[in-house]
Design goal:
Number of domains: 1
Strand content: under 5%
Shape: rod-shaped
Radius of gyration: 20 Å
Oligomer: single chain
Number of helices: 3
Helix content: over 70%
């Protein structure tokens, strides 16, 4: 059966929405992984982390910022010197 213009628009909109949803999910996955890596590295180096720092890490939405923080872990001597 032939598809109406409205049905085609709906299908196209759903496909675009699905692509956006997949991209958002991919980014969220990368952020979650980076946060986990950062917390793990900090805990391995400095033991238990203050709740405030864990909360700050969990709210960062900039992947580049998290990646820079991960690289910083090996260069700081004290947790107090770590900047996020």
């Amino acid at each position: 059966m032939a598809q109406t213009a409205v049905e085609a628009w709906i299908e196209e909109g759903m496909a675009k929405g699905e692509a956006k949803g997949l991209e958002k999910g991919r980014v969220e996955g990368q952020l979650s992984t980076a946060r986990t890596i950062l917390r793990t590295l900090l805990e391995d180096r400095f033991s238990a982390l203050p709740l405030e720092l864990v909360q700050r890490i969990n709210t960062v939405t900039d992947l580049e910022r998290l990646q820079a923080a991960i690289r910083q872990v090996s260069r700081v001597a004290r947790l107090e010197d770590f900047q996020l």
